[in-house]
Write a structure and sequence with these properties.
The protein has about 425 residues and is α/β, with parallel strands linked by helices. It contains 16 helices and 14 strands. Bound molecules: adenosine monophosphate.
């Protein structure tokens, strides 16, 4: 992280307040590098992975520039963020709402796999910012529902994945619809020759910024996975938390709603816990963190959006109740444990739908998570399905005693952190 402050980057008070509310204290390197030139209106080619804070690196300048200058007449689409997946689109929209909460700008999401009518209605009501995946956006453009003639800033997010997913023609077709005079912010985790050629076809005199990928998985974290049906996750989690070896646990859910529900349910079962996420006030969040730090609260249920703000020593366990959609978030999550040379345990509860997410995590980290199958809720069908999607030959499984969480610590070490 950079030592620079957000206040020095040229952002207005409304945005600084929202950043403070989100619990961010200092800009990440990509934010320090990208925000000032993006605010100045120039084109940018940024190399940054998910997990580096890249969303805010483009979202904050967009919000700042759009709010600084209002336009006459009805609302028009002035910024477009194109991203490869529905999940990323929803996350970006969520971030725009978090950072833009004190502004009057409106964003909307256009993604496939869901009915288009609500999206068309949202477009009719007017949006300043559109976050979209290429296929649905192109569809809606073709049907005449999207006017991009007043666009000021275009963001291409995860350009390398766009190419991998075969979206390059769709992206090029969308770019042809954009005004030639615009700002282009081009983000990619890697810059291959194909990505560089796409970038040069759409940027004008761009500034290039790049940051190191997120930290590798700490070696002193034991990474475990438990295969469990979605419906059994809560019961399994309660069993895990009952173990005396779990002294301070951080539990991750994918959504704020999920975090609240889970914390409520755990509390009903007598677990000393609290929830922390972006919808809670800064005060409520600081109180929850202080209670967790001081040992008043044993279990904290959190979402990724606040994960970076959690700097608490002595977290014995990080439990991924939901696997993250972005493998980089996994690295950030489990980095909350095993601080200061301590040993930490990261347990991922994986249901059937999450197997592809598990594979992405293993691919990114270059490690195979140790399968723990001796628990009361082990689902052999999910485990078998996971084995089928695993590329290298599987290693032997560990078999700790049923219900004894401590024994998981010593089990299956052979597979832990084995490079692929
Ligand atoms: P991204 O790379 O945009 O997916 O961001 C990764 C995570 O970092 C998200 O959970 C963000 O909410 C969080 N984040 C982004 N910028 C900061 C910051 N300056 N301080 C703390 N957390 C941040």
């Amino acid at each position: 992280m950079s030592s620079q402050h957000f206040a020095n980057l040229g952002l207005s008070q409304s945005l600084l307040r929202a950043i403070g509310d989100a619990g961010y204290q200092i800009p990440t390197p990509i934010q320090s590098a990208a925000i000032p030139p993006a605010l100045a209106g120039g084109d940018l080619i940024a190399t940054a992975q998910t997990g580096t804070g890249k969303t805010a690196a483009f979202a904050l300048p967009i919000l700042e520039r759009l709010s600084a200058r209002s336009v006459k007449g009805p609302r028009a689409i002035r910024a477009l963020v194109l991203t490869p997946t529905r999940e990323l689109a929803l996350q970006i929209d969520e971030s725009l709402r978090v950072y833009g909460r004190h502004l009057r700008l409106r964003s909307t999401v256009l993604v496939g796999g869901v009915a288009q009518d609500p999206q068309v209605r949202a477009l009719r009501q007017g949006a300043d910012i559109v976050v979209a995946t290429p296929g649905r956006l192109l569809d809606l453009i073709d049907q005449g529902f999207v006017a991009l003639d007043r666009l000021e800033t275009f963001v291409l997010d995860e350009a390398d994945r766009m190419l991998d997913m075969g979206f390059v023609q769709a992206v090029r077709a969308i770019v042809r619809e954009l005004p030639a005079r615009r700002q282009t912010l081009f983000f990619s985790a890697t810059i291959s020759p194909a990505v560089a050629s796409l970038a040069s076809s759409m940027c004008r005199d761009p500034l290039t910024v790049s940051v190191a990928p997120p930290a590798a998985v700490p070696v002193n974290v034991e990474q475990r996975v438990m295969f469990v049906a979605k419906a059994d996750k809560r019961s399994l989690l309660r069993d895990l938390l009952r173990d005396r070896g779990v002294t301070r646990a951080l539990v991750f859910t994918r959504t704020k709603h999920g975090a609240n529900g889970l914390a409520r349910q755990l509390a009903q079962h007598g677990v000393n816990c609290d929830a922390i996420h972006a919808n809670k006030s800064q005060n409520a969040r600081q109180r929850a963190l202080a209670d967790f730090d001081g040992g008043l609260v044993k279990v904290l249920v959190a979402t990724d959006i606040v994960a970076r703000g959690i700097d608490v020593d002595g977290i014995s366990h990080v439990i991924n109740y939901d696997l993250p959609h972005e493998p980089e978030a996994y690295v950030h999550r489990i980095g909350r444990t095993a601080r200061a040379g301590n040993l930490g345990v990261a347990v991922s509860l994986c249901d059937l739908e999450e197997i592809p997410l598990l594979r992405s995590i293993e691919k990114l980290t270059g490690t195979s998570l140790t399968v723990v199958d001796g628990h009361a809720y082990h689902d052999e069908a999910i485990a078998a399905c996971s084995e089928r999607t695993r590329t290298p030959a599987p290693a032997p499984k560990s078999r700790p005693r049923r219900g004894d969480f401590r024994s998981y610590r010593s089990a299956g070490r052979g597979r832990h952190a084995s490079p692929r």
